[in-house]
Amino acid sequence: MNIDQIIDNIYCIPETSRLLLKENINEVRLPKGYLLFKADKVETAVYFIKRGIARAYTYQNDNEITFWFGKEGDTIISMKSYVENKKGYENVDLLEECDLYELKTTNLQKLFDKDIHIANWGRKFAEKELIKTEERLISRQFQTASKRYKQLLTDNPDLLQRVQLSHLASYLGITQVSLSRIRAEK
Amino acid sequence: MNIDQIIDNIYCIPETSRLLLKENINEVRLPKGYLLFKADKVETAVYFIKRGIARAYTYQNDNEITFWFGKEGDTIISMKSYVENKKGYENVDLLEECDLYELKTTNLQKLFDKDIHIANWGRKFAEKELIKTEERLISRQFQTASKRYKQLLTDNPDLLQRVQLSHLASYLGITQVSLSRIRAEK
DNA sequence: ATTCTTTTTTAACATTTGTAAAATTATTAA
DNA sequence: TTAATAATTTTACAAATGTTAAAAAAGAAT
């Protein structure tokens, strides 16, 4: 998934604005297992995933809890860092070798004040992330773990091949034992 | 909480832009129990709460599940309607008589394309809502119902006086019986 | 104040989910 | 291939939460 597709997918902007944005984006290749974000740091960049898969997790009395997976086309971002310039809760590690598009947030902020199309692009970005986050919240509040697991399978059939079940279990908010029980059910 | 405070609290914009925004906002008083949003409708306005308290809920096999409370300074919005022009999941009713500032989304969209300050204000609005939604998700995934109840008490001590426990229980994702047990604990 | 209605708590029991440890299966490296 | 390691499932039991129904408490209406 290339950078033009990713930009347009968020919100279509005129060619000149897109070029302005792309001037501030550069591509990086990082190895599997690479720790991209650390929970105790203010992150200074956002990343768009060209290829690969990543995971965000945090610690809850000594055990890792995975709360996000991102793959091709998704954005790796620490919202707390991006919006409030504060430390986030997320550690992000790469579950595969990844090609990422890197964009420094300070540069992006400058573009927001200069170009109305990019400002609206940034607005659309936040709005779309918001919808995704809200859907995760709703699904978590309204659906049983079992239903959410099945939903995940239909929405992201590849995920099961790409991430291990212990991560998936904590993502679903249940133990690995419970997930095994759910998988054994049918 | 007046409209200038509410606007500035989201993001400070120049006087001229604020006036432009305020031209499109009008105040309404609505009675307790009023059903402001319906789940099967595309909502065409957003509301800022000047005074009062509201609740968003949805149905999950015949029982109501409350998933949001809003009070003075908060925004009543159907994100699905606002962002994607689709039906949302929320019914919103007013738990007290409310004074609301109403803003039609079509008018707001026009301002976004015309005024870069308002575009950035809209961006900040989405970003701040995103942070709030993310925090709710994180709290829901990482904390027990008991801890979330106690957190709610410290964050919003007035909430307990203003909403009934059955709503609070479903908001916390537990039954009313469980909530009673939690409250009885200490 | 008294009745009626609604809200909240309590109780008993069923179901779900968690914990810890062992068994199985899959993956990696020599 | 084989041993070593890591991931997943299974088991048995414990703890937490749900269900249903009844009791108690609080609030509203006459």
Topology:
2 copies of one chain form a homodimer.
Chain A: H1 3-10, H2 15-22, E1 25-30, E2 35-37, E3 45-51, E4 53-60, E5 63-71, E6 75-76, H3 79-84, E7 91-94, E8 98-104, H4 105-114, H5 116-142, H6 145-155, H7 159-162, H8 165-172, H9 176-185
Antiparallel strand pairs in A: 1-8, 2-7, 3-6, 3-8, 4-5, 4-7
Chain A binds a DNA duplex (30 and 30 nucleotides) through helix 9.
Question: Could you characterize what this model shows?
Answer:
- The structure is a homodimer of 186-residue chains.
- Chain A has 186 residues and is α+β, with helices and mostly antiparallel strands.
- The first copy, chain A, has a single domain (3-142), classed as Jelly Rolls.
- The first copy, chain A, has 9 helices and 8 strands.
- A 4-stranded antiparallel beta sheet of chain A has the order 1-8-3-6.
- The longest helix of chain A has 27 residues, at 116-142.
- The A-B interface holds A 58, 60, 65, 67, 79-80, 82-84, 89, 112-113, 115-116, 119-120, 122-123, 126-131, 133-134, 136-138, 140-142, 173 and B 58, 60, 65, 67, 79-80, 82-84, 89, 112-113, 115-116, 119-120, 122-123, 126-131, 133-134, 136-138, 140-142, 173.
- Chain A binds a DNA duplex (30 and 30 nucleotides) through α9.
